[in-house]
């Protein structure tokens, strides 16, 4: 028997909006709605922590500037209580500056593992790991190992 947990379902729906509406559609204003004022993000290779919605907006703007056609064709979510884990596949074309790297026109495909903690329908903390080495290799900035 499957037990329905409306909190988990609601939290998964909120997290799904990040790749689809914020990153893919470019609705950066939605960050203020979904992220708590005291949000803390752990996103290597960003040094230190991200704080507040504006901290997460910086990550969004970096990816949206570098890959304006960014799309997430695969989104897998698992929820447990106040936590949602996402495995994402992102694809895009390097058409703008990204991490100081001038546009190469190269296509990239990357994966990410993300874990979000929510409280009363807003995201309070996140741990995000994107395959940055893979991105840099596909852009020709780092040689394949």
UniProtKB/TrEMBL annotation:
Pfam families registered for this protein in UniProt: SnoaL
InterPro entries linked to this entry: Cyclase_SnoaL-like, NTF2-like_dom_sf
SUPFAM superfamilies: NTF2-like
Native organism: Halorubrum rubrum
Domain of life: Archaea
Protein name: Ester cyclase
Region forming the signal peptide: none
């Amino acid at each position: 028997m499957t037990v329905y947990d409306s909190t988990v379902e609601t939290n998964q729906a909120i997290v799904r909006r990040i790749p689809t509406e914020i990153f893919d559609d470019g609705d950066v204003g939605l960050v203020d709605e979904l992220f708590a004022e005291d949000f803390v993000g752990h996103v290597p290779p960003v040094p230190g922590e991200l704080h507040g919605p504006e901290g997460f907006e910086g990550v969004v703007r970096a990816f949206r500037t570098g890959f304006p056609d960014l799309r997430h064709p695969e989104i897998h979510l698992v929820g447990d209580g106040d936590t949602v884990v996402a495995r994402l596949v992102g694809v895009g074309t390097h058409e703008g500056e990204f991490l100081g790297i001038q546009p190469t026109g190269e296509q990239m495909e990357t994966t990410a593992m993300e874990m979000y903690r929510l409280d009363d329908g807003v995201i309070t903390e996140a741990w995000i790991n994107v395959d940055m080495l893979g991105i840099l290799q596909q852009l020709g900035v780092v040689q394949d190992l």
